[in-house]
Amino acid sequence: MSVREGRQRQVRQGDAPALPVPMGLGRGLVLAAVFVCAACGLVYELELVALASYLVGDSVTQASVVLSVMVFAMGVGSLLAKRWCGRAAAGFGAVEVLLALVGGLSALALYASFAWLGESRSVLVGFSLGIGVLIGAEIPLLMMLIQRIRRQDPGGAVADLFAADYVGALVGGLAFPFLLLPLLGQLDAALLTGAVNAVAGGAVVLWLFRGDLSARCRMALCTANACVLALLLLAAVLTGPFEVAAQRAIYGSAVRHTERTAVQEVVLTGNGPKSLRIFLDGRLRVSGANEYRYHEALAHPAMAGRHRRVLVLGGGDGLALREVLRYRSVRAVTLVDYDPGLVRLARTDPHLVALNHGSQRDPRVRVVVGDAFQWLRTRAGVGRYDVVLCDLPDPGISRSAKLYSREFYGLAAMALAPDGRLAVHAGDPESRPEAFWAVDASVRAAGLRAVEYRVRGNWGFVLASRREPRLRLDARAPKLRSLTAASLRRAGALRADRQRHREPPSTLMHPRYLSASLP
């Protein structure tokens, strides 16, 4: 009988291997490996969810896709691991090498796909499947390794194994948003996790269970681990140039400022106010060439009437604020935006300041950094505003859906003066009519009367008040570049469409916007 056959027979018979440490310590080290592998596995999952939400949008759908595909793949991986149970140490070593490679490079691959191919859904599903299969193969193999050290009741072994697994998942789940993401960013966090995964898996197999491996197998695993670690290190060194190249592929060569704020990625391009473009989480939100069409349409119909006190929800770029401050009769404006980084750029970036006319520096303005929903919830009864403008992120992501809900508009209505007016950006009624009319239904469900209008550029809006609102411009309105009384009347020819689109209102319990984001 050969040495290899004898070793396989020893493993099948359950004979204890010759460990370099006492049996109890060896078992503890295996459970520690379970802990580390579980933490790394959950970081991979959260990394995929975060990147998918950022690159694709609709965080609820993307999280559902990633998690469901991974759970299915874990079941497949558990079945495939049965073939390696006779050589658990070698199988576990191979799985960890592959998992470190695939998981560590997953963020780079997704970002590269988005930047150069414009498509990341198929890559997302592919990595979810691959990582899920490898994670699923870990548990059966680790169970065999624990039983190799000391045979015990299967129920007790499973309890110990899953206890270490769940605690590791807790640590990984907390480390990702509170430690890895803010300190390292998405790309470096995935690379570091892959390196930790490779080191932990290699240490267990190549040191603790080296007696279960042939010389050729040990050499192959050592070489594979060294190559993976070297590749991850090289990728970490090149993440800076990679990000620059990817940003140029996405935004063009005129990228001037890139910043990952506490809320989103903000990218500014262009070398002047007219050429300035603002991208939030990879999507164009402001173009200096035509933004005035949007902001004039949002602000000026609502300003027709009393407007001494104005509330702007969102609009951290200061552009809607610019339009409000063109009225000398405005006495006080409160701006509430969730992103402190964008608010700061609106005050300090020279091109953005030139575009917003330094609106945040006006003494009539008070800027509040915070969540608009929570701010209204605590302050709605304190002040009464003549005008409320909702210049908010699109509702296609779960964190924004509440800002387009019936509950939110109910809070906004409480902040209105008796004859106050509310203006809401509601998207394009032609390309995404369901989302547009759901916004309209939500405003009406909050007890307000509304009129809808759309201006050139496919921007749709809802103007609402307690009384029937009228689409008009204030007699004291400043000279506008795109909006006139006649064009505003034409923009309001949407009443007939409401009869064809009877959408239900969106609520906190039943959001209606997560299937498609607004433009």
From TrEMBL:
It is an enzyme of class 2 (transferase). Spermidine binds at residues 295, 317. One of its GO terms (biological process) is spermidine biosynthetic process. Its main location: membrane. Residues 495-504 have a biased composition (Basic and acidic residues). Residues 491-519 are annotated as: Disordered. One of its GO terms (molecular function) is thermospermine synthase activity. It comes from the Bacteria. The chain crosses the membrane at residues 29-56, 62-81, 93-117, 123-146, 158-183, 189-209, 221-242. It is a multi-pass membrane protein. PROSITE patterns: PABS_1, PABS_2. Gene3D superfamilies: Vaccinia Virus protein VP39 (3.40.50.150). It is found in: Cell membrane. One of its GO terms (cellular component) is plasma membrane. Keywords: Cell membrane, Membrane, Polyamine biosynthesis, Spermidine biosynthesis, Transferase, Transmembrane, Transmembrane helix. Its EC number is 2.5.1.16. It catalyses: S-adenosyl 3-(methylsulfanyl)propylamine + putrescine = S-methyl-5'-thioadenosine + spermidine + H(+). Residues 239-466 form the PABS domain. InterPro entries: MFS_trans_sf (IPR036259), PABS (IPR030374), PABS_CS (IPR030373), SAM-dependent_MTases_sf (IPR029063), Spermi_synthase (IPR001045). Pfam families: Spermine_synth. Belongs to the spermidine/spermine synthase family. Catalyzes the irreversible transfer of a propylamine group from the amino donor S-adenosylmethioninamine (decarboxy-AdoMet) to putrescine (1,4-diaminobutane) to yield spermidine. Homodimer or homotetramer. This is Polyamine aminopropyltransferase. The lineage of its organism: Bacteria, Bacillati, Actinomycetota, Actinomycetes, Kitasatosporales.
